[in-house]
Amino acid sequence: MNEQWKAAVLGGVIGAALSLAIMFAVGRLGFLPGASDDRLHAYLVAHPYLLVEMTEKLQKAEANKDQQGRQAVIEKVGLKRFFDPSVAYITGPANAKNTFVEFFDYNCIHCRNSFAAVKKFYDAHKSDTRFAFVEFPIFGDASMAAARTGVAARQQGDLYLTLHFLLMGEKDTINNDVLFADAKKAGLDMAKLNTALVAPDLDKTIAAAHKLAEQAKIDGTPTFIVNGKVHPGEITEADLKELTK
Q1: Which of 8, 159, 169, 182 is spaced 20 to 30 Å from 48 by Cα?
Q2: What's the number of CA atoms in the CB half-sphere (13 Å) around residue 31?
């Protein structure tokens, strides 16, 4: 089911539920209205906040249900799967008290909007948190090229993170020129990088990330899993503090 159709169905469900809720509420007020009862119309016009409150409550309930479903899937897949070095770049103590997973696309605006919070969290918690950074390119050829460069850079240790943070800090689409410039700026050995880019296992890593995302019902970026709790979409410092308290 595509998102537009899902939204239409959800809107219909909410509309139907809202109608029932209104009928029940006004019934308790002593109205037994027909479809065209003037008293019902007058009451709702006089109390429009009821519609807003009911709609918000129904939408919140639906969002909570979706979140519970996502969380159940993550728990079924198991956190260990996200810390597989054949899928993610792993860093931080193996026995860390906190865990942090991010599925990202270098050309995702929402990933970039989360970058400042993620970088600050990494700098503050790299000694007590196990991190897994997962290249999950979903925005076309430019994103795939950036992801392949990121995966290739993993062979050069911590320089991967230097490149990763440089790319996440970019403002425009990451093309080959940007990739080359940031790779040099990160201090990567360009000869080793070029060799890694043609290694047969490189594309297998990205394919494995996509397979894991499919199994975990992750279909957008960024998606975070912090201490086992899934957080789809942009993340803030406040979110990270809440997830790790």
Answers
A1: 8
A2: 18
Whole-number average pLDDT of the chain:
86
Here the tokens at position 215 are 């199994």
Domain 80-243 part of CATH 3.40.30.10:
yes
Total-model pTM = 0.76
Residues 136-163 pLDDT 10s: 999 999 999 999 999 999 999 999 999 9
